[in-house]
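Inputs:
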Amino acid sequence: MSEALARLRAALGERVDTGAETVEAARADRSGFRSAGAPLAVVHAESVADVQTVLRIAHATGTPVVTRGAGTGLAGGANAGPGEIALSLRRMTRILEVSPDDLLAVVEPGILNGDLDAALAPHGLWWAPDPASRAISTVGGNIATGAGGLLCAKYGVVRDAVLALDVVLADGRLIRTGHRSVKGVTGLDLTALLIGSEGTLGVVVGATLKLRRRVAGAVCTLTALFPDVRSAAAASAAVTAAGVQPAIMELLDAASVAAISALLRVPDVAAGAAQLTIQTDGPAAAAEADTIARVLREAGGRVALTADPEEGERLLAFRRAMHPAMETLGTALIEDVSVPRSRMAEMFDEIERVAREHDVVIPTVAHAGDGNLHPNFVFDGAEVPERVWAAADDLFRAALRLGGTLTGEHGVGVLKRRWLADELGDDQWRLQRDIAHVFDPRGILNPGKVFTP
Amino acid sequence: MSEALARLRAALGERVDTGAETVEAARADRSGFRSAGAPLAVVHAESVADVQTVLRIAHATGTPVVTRGAGTGLAGGANAGPGEIALSLRRMTRILEVSPDDLLAVVEPGILNGDLDAALAPHGLWWAPDPASRAISTVGGNIATGAGGLLCAKYGVVRDAVLALDVVLADGRLIRTGHRSVKGVTGLDLTALLIGSEGTLGVVVGATLKLRRRVAGAVCTLTALFPDVRSAAAASAAVTAAGVQPAIMELLDAASVAAISALLRVPDVAAGAAQLTIQTDGPAAAAEADTIARVLREAGGRVALTADPEEGERLLAFRRAMHPAMETLGTALIEDVSVPRSRMAEMFDEIERVAREHDVVIPTVAHAGDGNLHPNFVFDGAEVPERVWAAADDLFRAALRLGGTLTGEHGVGVLKRRWLADELGDDQWRLQRDIAHVFDPRGILNPGKVFTP
């Protein structure tokens, strides 16, 4: 037994789990990637003190630490390998404070996004970052990846919704970054730097979240079918140009619509049709929905509109069936490029080109309000084939050419580390790596992720 | 002539200004602080290449560089001293791009906030960060300090409204941080780290700003007089608790109201009265204003409400007269603490205590929606007397006790550097200083500011 494991056992007893199934599960997230082998152990931390103990031992023994939440990541950022400690925060689920007066909550990182939402609802409060994975993903994972979701164009990203963090540093010391107030500019904004840092700078053990009041009034839902993805993309741009701000605006391309239609046995969808699903909320929801319906019809869409919640849920169900529909096609590598809204139609052209040239099926769903696209590279078997990687490489470079980014909300992890310097440039890449080194001089925090070329 | 100055002259000619008045002006901002003496020169950069030239020469010769915009800072962060280069970006005022489709603008840092606003208005667009100094302060200064303003509770702070930055590093290299898309999590968020870094990490030479569409519809304005500041603070908390979100909610304490009433010759204000000024906007402006009027009356306020723009301007004029009113009292050290909204009444108690115990007059205006208070320490003469410093020290410590922060929006500069570690803790203070060192290994970027204890 390694010295690190012996010391962890002595300090943390049964919270150090070396069960074969547990360590095996810690090799993977939902990206389809697995590490080279099982980690030393999974430590189920139950307190800040537990996390500090793990980091002190890891620091003293030079043992790598891979922090994990629910393991729902899509970039391999939390996959733990041989010789590494998998530090699970999934048991740290307490809500330490909810303050309706200050519109904030203080939570532990392991709470599921959906559970937090359920706890805030009775207060009439809401934490806006709302990943599609909310039922199964943690707040800590949301912060570690800088995750996004469906509502970002209107309600912002994670970085806009975190006031302060409690962070255990690589050597076990605890710092508190940020503020409990809306404003605060004392020193450098380490809170923002830590958001999206994917476990490379420290371990987030507590978060002070900036809440909103729940949006009152009706929610209106629209769907619209278009003859092709370009016209659907143009229609979504026309919605934005009309000056209305939907809460949700999702675009499904033809391959996605076809797969979902087959799964749900929806008969009357024309071949090649693409679809928009849009929701409006707030005091102007009905007026905005009417404007949007007009814009979509003028753009050639076949529009359905409802203010009825049940009917709205029924319309949304089509979009929600994207992932199950992909599973009917094979294994999917879910990508995550983001481009300026105005370049979205061009990005769809590029996806079509990449699919054709590399002979890969790439059904794509986009958060059309913010230009974030999720191309699903479909293949057979468990391993990503080389031609899919070649296609993904082509796709990433296309996104960069269009002024876009490799990853809108999933993170870099292991999946995209080899393209990181392409986007950042060598000077910035080195600068970022040197900053990470200040936090983690011994290189024990999630090594091999993000900054390993 | 120093080597640095000779090389600057050779490279940049007349843009290197050693005129006595110019270098003298670069010693100060609007904080009331002056550096120990005039800088070597003021360089009026006109392009990114000019800035790179300055930094290359500064780096080669080990000469400190103090970046300046319009010199309207309130913390001494841009004051340049002996042996230093004052690098003025005030001539870099171009708007390089406005994209209504992508809701972004790319600008040079020297443009005034007000000029940018005027240029965006015809597009129906708006950059929300709106400091009270907008007519005289630059976008670059706004970014360097992480400035706030009156609208932050509803529309966010600078950090929420910048997508990407072009930054010249300490040795003259240029990097581009961030994204043109709403979402993007590729690597560490250096954009956010640079915002509010007060010239210690690099020189921002370009900014991609996240715009909003201008808010349509009527703006409603309310004022309400209360018998004392505690009841006004309680009323502002009741407004927030009622679930409405004003665009503006300003609180003037009794000393401020008295000084403004005297200046504007408003006769009918009772002694000891405090005032709230509130604006609502957006589709629910009228309904929200009605709710707020009811809440304020129930809280004991004497309320005026109007949807007429001219009458609204007249009501706002009282709040706008705060600074001129302070000038009638003497010299003012304008402070900038921020506390959680729920602690604002306690903070006013603390201000009253500090004023009494240190025998200082401290009229205070607060952005009540976000808990940011500006106590004005009034004194005679140009130099801040020691008893005022002692009072400010007492006040800062009170803000920290209440879970608040030293500075909500003005920054640390020289004014608050000695309290920085009190708020951050020693571990985080050292971590921040080490991060700054990665950006600036030779220590030439704004030395003596922020991280100098």
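Residues 3-88 of chain A form a domain with the Uridine Diphospho-n-acetylenolpyruvylglucosamine Reductase; domain 2 fold (CATH 3.30.43.10). Flag for discussion at group meeting.
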